[in-house]
């Protein structure tokens, strides 16, 4: 029964008496409208009472308002409060209301015709009022009182897609506004909270991102593993390792099939030196989630670090079998073959990587650096230019291209490339360090110090900062500032105490000065404080049984001795079988590549590079330099009007020069 408002504000005599009759009581619940309280002077001075009844479908509906003279005024005065719902008898409701008696000389009583007109007017008013009554519970209203309707679910997907595009364009404020609306309307959907947290973390608003993740976990009742995993990654970046472990654990409890949580937790343990714990986590990931290229790749890299190369090759093969388009797996496998000096196999794997992901900047960069180190300067330059044309906003490609031009071409051209790389990303420390190294080699000591200071002002606790301090220490050592060099070496070791190069450089400085005792002390300090990761090989048998049991070939693969040429031939054949093509051993130069000899020839082993970039990437190999310049100009013109958000606290500024 809808709530009947009281009319005590109009008159103190406006009391209600509620009566029920036995007929049609089951239809009362379907009667859902309110009776408005009208001013008391609308009725005649004679006592009249209003009644609301329900009728059966056979009878004609009675008037909504009718007089009932069977009830006296005395009954009205005794009923002051409407009884509770539980005390109502199961009868038809009859609401009676007294009419104010008008007294005074200037007032005249209304006639019966006026009363009938009033009754018909009230009847029409009630009909209009009933049309406006909501049938369901009212929705949320905003501050102005207007009703807010929840949008359709498809709007959430559209809003998330739009926010993603805005975030890629560095329009973080607009993306944040859209995501906050999504969280308001759909708090139970964790995708908006995940996206908003990532945008805030990119802006270095770590506390706000943490609050978003925490509220998202509460709204989803802790059942969304993506929120837990993103929160754990955030805490790991902030250095809260213990808290990150707890959050990774919560993510795996929320969904034990969430592969990203297992893998992220394992990577955290690897960085902390807990290799055994990392292997256990990766084994659980394969047990609960099945084969995954990232898990296989991480296990393969652990095996390569432990010098178990056959197991590493097997795991890399499993990773590429799970996802042949995984560019990272092909590149990591190529790095293993480079370490083993299997250059032909490495080149073939690089080709597989660019075929899997033609626009991947890492593939073109690593392949270009590899060819340059092999002495194929022209091919290395070409690969780096292709990578830069495809990724014009990547400073790493320009940095490597600048170093290549400095080594083989012109210093001025290298400076131009370094300057453009620093304009693309002024917070990329390796660009400033490499530029400072080049200026030091050219004899510009003041310029080199200035560039080193810029690099340290960006972040003074990172690995790049440790390398910068080591390079700066070598600079001061060469020009005779030995006390400054010692302080710089010590500062570098405070950041990274495991750097063999820094310890040995400091020891050589002392030895050159005739302090052989001090040099020996420094070497002993390195061996005393270094952290050795003891990796037990006994786990391999049982673990690979979990991966693929009942396969005898795995046990043959687990022989720790290297089986020279036949095993490597098999690995190369397995690589080429993935595309259904076979490569002739004579055309590939298989014997020289797999026997450990260095292959310095730049001839490709599979694809025609010019035809590949023309067909797949729509690039003209003969006009690559022209396209490179046009891309540089277009990037410069596009970045001028764009306002990219930069935190004032983290903006790279040139500090006042400090005498070292």
From TrEMBL:
Cellular component GO terms held in the UniProt record: chloroplast
GO biological process, one term: regulation of translation
GO molecular function: mRNA binding; single-stranded RNA binding
Pfam families: TPR_16
Region (Disordered): 51-72, 576-602
Name of the protein: Protein high chlorophyll fluorescent 107
Gene source species: Carya illinoinensis
């Amino acid at each position: 029964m809808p709530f009947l408002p009281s009319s005590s504000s109009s008159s103190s005599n406006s009391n209600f008496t509620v009566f029920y009759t036995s007929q049609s009581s089951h239809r009362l619940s379907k009667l859902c409208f309110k009776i408005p309280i009208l001013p008391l002077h609308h009725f005649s001075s004679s006592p009249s009472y209003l009644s609301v009844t329900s009728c059966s479908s056979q009878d004609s509906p009675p008037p909504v308002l009718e007089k009932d003279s069977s009830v006296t005024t005395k009954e009205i005065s005794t009923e002051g409060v409407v009884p509770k719902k539980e005390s109502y008898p199961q009868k038809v409701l009859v609401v009676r209301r007294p009419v104010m008696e008008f007294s005074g000389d200037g007032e005249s009583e209304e006639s019966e015709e006026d009363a009938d007109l009033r009754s018909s007017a009230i009847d029409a008013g009630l009909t209009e009022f009933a049309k406006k009554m909501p049938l369901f519970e009212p929705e949320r209203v905003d501050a102005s009182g207007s009703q807010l309707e929840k949008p359709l679910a498809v709007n959430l997907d559209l809003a998330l897609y739009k926010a993603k595009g805005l975030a890629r364009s560095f329009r973080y404020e607009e993306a944040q506004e859209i995501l906050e609306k999504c969280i308001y309307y759909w708090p139970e959907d964790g995708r908006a909270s995940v996206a908003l947290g990532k945008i805030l973390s990119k802006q270095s608003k770590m506390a706000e991102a943490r609050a978003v993740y925490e509220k998202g976990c509460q709204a989803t009742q802790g059942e969304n593993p993506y929120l837990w995993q993103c929160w754990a990654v955030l805490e790991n970046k902030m250095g809260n390792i213990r808290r990150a472990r707890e959050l990774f654990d919560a993510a795996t409890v929320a969904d034990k099939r969430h592969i990203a949580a297992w893998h992220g937790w394992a990577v955290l343990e690897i960085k902390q030196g807990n290799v055994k714990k990392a292997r256990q986590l990766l084994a659980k990931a394969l047990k609960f989630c099945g084969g995954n290229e990232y898990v296989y790749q991480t296990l393969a890299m652990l095996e390569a670090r432990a010098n178990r190369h056959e197991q590493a090759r097997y795991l890399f093969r499993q990773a590429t079998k799970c996802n042949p388009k995984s560019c990272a797996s092909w590149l990591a496998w190529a790095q293993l073959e480079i370490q083993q000096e299997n250059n032909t196999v490495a080149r073939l794997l690089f080709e597989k990587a660019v075929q899997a992901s033609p626009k991947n900047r890492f593939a073109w960069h690593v392949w270009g650096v590899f060819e340059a180190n092999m002495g194929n300067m022209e091919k290395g330059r070409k690969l780096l230019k292709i990578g830069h044309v495809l990724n014009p906003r990547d400073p790493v490609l320009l940095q490597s291209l600048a170093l290549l031009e400095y080594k083989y071409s012109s210093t001025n051209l290298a400076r131009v490339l370094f300057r453009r790389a620093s304009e693309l990303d002024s917070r990329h420390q390796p660009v400033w360090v490499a530029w400072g190294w080049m200026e030091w080699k050219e004899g510009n000591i003041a310029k080199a110090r200035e560039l080193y200071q810029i690099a340290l002002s960006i972040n003074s606790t990172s690995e790049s900062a440790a390398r910068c301090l080591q390079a700066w220490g070598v600079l001061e050592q060469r020009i005779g500032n030995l006390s400054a060099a010692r302080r710089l070496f010590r500062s570098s070791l405070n950041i990274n105490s495991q750097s063999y190069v820094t310890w040995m450089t400091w020891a050589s400085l002392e030895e050159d000065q005739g302090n052989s005792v001090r040099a020996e002390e420094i070497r002993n300090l390195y061996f005393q404080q270094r952290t050795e990761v003891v990796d037990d090989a006994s786990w391999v048998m049982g673990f690979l049984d979990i991966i693929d049991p009942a396969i005898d070939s795995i046990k043959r693969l687990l022989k720790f001795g290297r089986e020279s040429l036949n095993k490597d031939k098999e690995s190369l054949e397995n690589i080429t079988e993935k595309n259904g093509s076979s490569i002739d051993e004579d055309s590939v130069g298989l014997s020289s590549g797999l026997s450990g000899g260095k292959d310095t020839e730049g001839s490709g082993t599979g694809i025609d590079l010019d035809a590949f970039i023309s067909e797949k990437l729509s690039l003209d190999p003969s006009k690559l330099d022209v396209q490179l310049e046009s891309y540089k100009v277009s990037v410069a013109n596009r970045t001028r009007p764009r306002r990219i958000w930069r935190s004032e606290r983290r903006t790279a500024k040139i500090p006042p020069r400090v005498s070292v």
